Amino acid sequence: xxxxxxxxxxxxxxxxxxxxxxxxxxxxxxxxxxxxxxxxxxxxxxxxxxxxxxxxxxxxxxxxxxxxxxxxxxxxxxxxxxxxxxxxxxxxxxxxxxxxxxxxxxxxxxxxxxxxxxxxxxxxxxxxxxxxxxxxxxxxxxxxxxxxxxxxxxxxxxxxxxxxxxxxxxxxxxxxxxxxxxxxxxxxxxxxxxxxxxxxxxxxxxxxxxxxxxxxxxxxxxxxxxxxxxxxxxxxxxxxxxxxxxxxxxxxxxxxxxxxxxxxxxxxxxxxxxxxxxxxxxxxxxxxxxxxxxxxxxxxxxxxxxxxxxxxxxxxxxxxxxxxxxxxxxxxxxxxxxxxxxxxxxxxxxxxxxxxxxxxxxxxxxxxxxxxxxxxxxxxxxxxxxxxxxxxxxxxxxxxxxxxxxx
Length: 407
Hints:
Layout: H1 3-30, H2 39-52, E1 55-60, E2 65-70, E3 77-83, H3 110-130, E4 137-142, H4 150-156, E5 169-182, E6 186-188, E7 191-194, E8 196-205, E9 209-210, H5 220-238, E10 245-253, E11 260-261, E12 264-273, H6 276-296, E13 300-306, E14 312-314, H7 316-330, E15 335-337, H8 349-352, E16 357-365, H9 386-397
Parallel strand pairs: 3-4, 3-5, 5-16, 6-15
Antiparallel strand pairs: 1-2, 2-4, 6-16, 7-14, 8-12, 8-13, 9-11, 10-12
């Protein structure tokens, strides 16, 4: 397929699909589902892939994951990924398509991600009927990104290795809406894009006593308070100021009555890092600081970590290629350098542990409107960004063979 023909036809097909994709996005928004419970959402995806003539396998990653596949000329496939789950949050947007399920809403734009990937599948399927695609395309609809590790389960189920449907995947690309970036723009960077996230669990053990007789025990509350303060100095005093790390204690739980010093206090928090080396160093330092600080107060500390998402790393070579493809269709001025890694975490990271991966952000901001951040009860995906998202995903799948806009 020649580039000029591809460009004109691609934009024509996207324009034809846009009204239905906006309606679909709003329908998904009105019917949000928590991770691993996206039964209706998965059904909508399967219905749309069937209508588009895209073969697929459902029932993945615990039941709601879907993998679609289109054939192409190359031996290995490019995978495009969307997350499909919502958050346990009560919506406050007031939109006509607001959540119909109280306490659950699409506050992170996964409704938009899903609609975009369905749109890409529709458009690429129509192109494939006209001219063979340059490479096979796998469409990864993943459940439970929000703390559920759905990406890990999709990988374990074989979505990348060619055992489910379609050929083996040799690279994967994903996107995330970004309200801090203007609509019509995209941004990406090579190397670490988002941080790892591990849960910190600490139990400070002392000897309980009457509050009026603290000298007869060992005050676990005082020791736990000192531990919290000491942990905050790990980043400020043991991490290179040019590096990045986060240690935050978010839960302090201990005691039941105001005149009894409890035997123990539980602390729960999070640690974030941008390299595996820093991730390991933080764990070692947290364990040592908590233990030694507790000992100074005559107490002890049991420290453990619940492993969370790894660092999301963009493969440099693939990122350069994706940047070129995005510039082809959007123009250089609309493809920006993502300024710095974000200390939030993403389970897109699991795919990047297996194959070269690139994760970029899709602008959804509007200059003259209030900015509602991700995970806000007032956040809503900007439908005007769907066209940019579909065009971006299709350009990656087609190898960027399209004529860009003039800046």
